[in-house]
Design goal:
The protein folds into two domains: 317 residues, 3-Layer(aba) Sandwich (Aminopeptidase); 112 residues, Alpha-Beta Plaits (2-Layer Sandwich), CATH 3.30.70. 35% of the residues lie in helices and 20% in strands. It has eleven helices and 14 strands. It has an eight-stranded mixed β-sheet. Helix 1 packs across helix 11. The termini are close together. The relative contact order is 0.18.
Length: 436
């Protein structure tokens, strides 16, 4: 079986890397992955998968951090101009850029879910000649959008796995459901797919990421992840403008309220039960040196080692914001634009993956202590599986990185694409438990 999988992967290696480079060149950030989703839909349909698209797999009211209607439409038109598949593109209009693709073997067996995130980061790719994507002509052509976290690789890996399983359908039992998820960046997309019922029929779920803390090709890791629960807010303080020299007493200073909030947020007492984080990443205010600022905008994020610790920090943060607004007699509003709970891979599934990985000829080492530390909205799906007592796991595929994730000169060894596709496909064949 290993030889069969390796043969199919070898035959498509070049096309998978070409696909990754095409997606990289046309990077699309959260909720506007129109071209990416349409291309994935076409490839999966051609392989014989049953598709569910857009609103079928995205709950409209559970989306977080959605761009404005104008931005959604502008990006839709750009995707059309850049070669999105015309048959599938309309299904994703309005920011419904998720899809699932199911392979039904017609034989009894488990329903295995595989999740691949597809969005880019809000970064502009560097033009320097020492940057491989620039050197080789596949740097992003879209201003302010760059694949700096490897989701272009994830999408290509997903297509690679789908190709293997479609070719070996007679060696499988049950069903395999591919989940192509938008808006992982900012932890915004998984919640809406869970709310739409995407995970409800799954017996087992796998997620994957390249390169987090594992910088050697052929090394894989899974288990005991340090997923931090997180909540993201956009905050607006609204006051009253006034002349700073002649009538300062008539103003209500939104900037001062925001400044007080910043110091208060960083001063929150930490919880005794574990680690926590808080960060004010953006603070914008003011229109002139002689005008009392009537508007201040903040972007903040909160994290906790557990969901409970994160909730504690959220409660304290909201109290700080309210107090700062009252002190300066200004109005304030908050919008939750992202979030994810804490979670961890199911130990029993980690053990199975370790056995599968250790036996795979392309895996040099399989670690059961994952170095992942941060937040990932795959945890929404893991939590949904936990509630049904179904296993889930998050796999790290090692690869050398030129620079860290979310940095402008991020790049990785493309050999991880065929290798990860091989390992994941082999794992599915093993977990399905009904092949020759």
């Amino acid at each position: 079986m290993t030889d069969l999988v390796a043969k199919i992967i070898a035959e498509q290696k070049e096309s998978l890397i070409e696909l990754r480079r095409d997606l990289h060149r046309h990077a699309e950030p959260a909720w506007v992955e129109y071209r990416t989703a349409s291309i994935a839909a076409r490839k999966l349909s051609d392989l014989g998968y049953e598709l569910k698209l857009g609103r079928e797999v995205i709950d409209e009211n559970s989306r977080m951090g959605l761009p404005s209607a104008a931005v959604l439409e502008k990006e839709y038109e750009r995707a059309k101009e850049q070669g999105a598949d015309p048959d599938y593109l309309p299904h994703f209009r309005g920011g419904f850029t998720g899809l699932t693709a199911t392979l039904d073997t017609g034989r009894p067996g488990p329903v295995i879910g595989l999740r691949f995130d597809i969005d880019a980061n809000d970064l502009t790719e560097p033009a320097g000649r020492d940057h491989v994507p620039t050197q080789q002509g596949f740097a992003s052509v879209n201003e302010g959008a760059m694949h700096a976290c490897g989701h272009d690789a994830h999408a290509a890996i997903g297509i690679g796995v789908a190709t293997v399983l479609a070719n070996l359908k007679d060696r499988l039992s049950g069903k395999v459901k591919f989940i192509f998820q938008p808006a992982e960046e900012g932890v915004r997309g998984a919640k809406s797919m869970v709310a739409a019922g995407v995970t409800d029929d799954l017996d087992l779920l796998l997620g994957l990421h390249i390169g987090f803390g594992v910088d050697q090709l052929g090394v894989f890791a899974c288990g005991n992840e340090q997923f931090l629960a997180t909540t993201k807010y956009d905050v607006t303080f609204t006051g009253v403008p006034a002349h700073a020299g002649s009538t300062p007493d008539e103003g209500k200073n939104a900037l001062l309220a925001a400044a007080l909030a910043v110091t208060g947020l960083y001063g929150i007492a930490r919880h005794k039960a574990g680690s926590s984080r808080i960060n004010v990443g953006v603070l914008k205010s003011g229109s002139g040196r002689n005008i009392i600022p009537d508007l201040a905008e903040m972007k903040i994020e909160i994290r906790g080692e557990t969901t409970e610790i994160n909730n504690y920090m959220v409660g304290k943060a909201l109290s700080v914001l309210e107090g700062a607004a009252r002190m300066q007699e200004v109005e304030y509003s908050t919008e939750e634009v992202g979030g994810a709970p804490a979670s961890v891979s199911t130990p029993e599934l980690v053990s199975k993956l370790e056995k599968i990985g250790t036996a795979h000829p392309g895996v040099r080492q399989f670690l059961t202590e994952s170095p992942f530390a941060g937040s990932e909205d795959f945890t929404y799906m893991m939590q949904a599986m936990d509630k049904r007592n179904k296993p889930s796991a998050y796999l790290i595929a090692g690869t050398p990185l030129k620079s860290g994730h979310h940095k402008r000169d991020f790049d990785f060894d493309e050999e991880v694409i065929p290798l990860a596709a091989d390992v994941v496909a082999s794992a599915v064949l093993d977990l399905a438990g009904n092949y020759k």
